[in-house]
Amino acid sequence: MHPPLTLHRHPMCAQIIEEFQRCHLDHPLGKFFGNCTDLKIKLDRCFREEKAVKRKANFEASKRLKASLQELRREAREDGSS
User: Fold this and answer.
1) 46-82, pLDDT tens digit by residue?
2) Terminus of the chain with fewer CB atoms < 10 Å: N or C?
3) Which residues does UniProt call coiled coil (predicted)?
4) 20 within 8 A of 39, measured Cβ to Cβ
5) pLDDT tens, 1-15?
6) What is the SS3 assignment for 13-75?
7) Angle between the 14-26 and 37-81 helix axes, to the nearest 10 degrees?
8) What is the pLDDT of residue 82?
């Protein structure tokens, strides 16, 4: 099962999404018998790659936030002890 195929939420996979949707329109019955399976596999791979990129960006952002919070706490302790 894939997430909703909205182009604005998946800009990295937009071209494959359009091809996949076009395949379903061109083969209304064939989609049930594997005509669009190759595109589905490509789409799943693209979603995995997109998720990995987002996960890495979120991890980097959380590291920066954690470092800034630790610095603020350190400054607050130094101000309170002086």
Assistant:
1) 999 999 999 999 999 999 999 999 999 998 888 877 5
2) N
3) none
4) yes
5) 677 788 888 889 999
6) HHHHHHHHHHHHHHCCCHHHHCCCHHHHHHHHHHHHHHHHHHHHHHHHHHHHHHHHHHHHHHH
7) 150
8) 59
**Structure-token pair, residue 42:** 């490509």
Q: Which helix (H) or strand (E) holds 81?
A: helix 37-81
**Is the Cβ–Cβ distance between 10 and 50 less than 8 Å?**
yes
Phi, psi of 2 (to 5 degrees): -110, 160
10 Å Cβ neighbour count for 29?
7
